[in-house]
Design brief:
120 residues; 7-stranded mixed sheet; 4-stranded antiparallel sheet; mainly beta
Length: 120
């Protein structure tokens, strides 16, 4: 079974910084692309950033250089460094991973989500 556990959310002031972490665990699996999505109240879930096992990153347009996604393959962990967040970045942030089970198909897994609130 694969589990994704996020941490690091909370209250941050506009212009501050926050780092989200996601620790992934599972037996007899390989982790492919990992990343972060978010869902604000009344809105659908949207992509924030992803990173492949080889380190190739992809960002949503609204990130505009403010956030950085990275991973530690040895720890099966992915991180999101949020710099100069804005109030509109307030949302529940979800960790996401594409996982290959031994002898099986690729499957997508989600963490439970961590709340990020950007406010004074």
């Amino acid at each position: 079974q694969v589990q994704l556990v996020e941490s690091g959310g909370g209250l941050v002031q506009p212009g501050g910084s926050l780092r989200l972490s996601c620790a992934a665990s599972g037996r007899s699996v390989n982790f492919g692309t990992m990343g972060w999505y978010r869902q604000a109240p009344g809105k659908g879930r949207e992509l924030v950033a992803t990173v492949t096992g080889g380190g190739t990153t992809n960002y949503a347009d609204f990130v505009n250089g403010r956030f950085g996604v990275s991973r530690d393959n040895a720890k099966n962990a992915v991180y999101l460094q949020m710099n100069t967040p804005k109030p509109e970045d307030t949302a529940v942030y979800y960790c996401n991973a594409l996982v290959l089970h031994t002898g099986g198909p690729w499957r997508t897994y989600w963490g439970q989500g961590t709340q990020v609130t950007v406010s004074t």
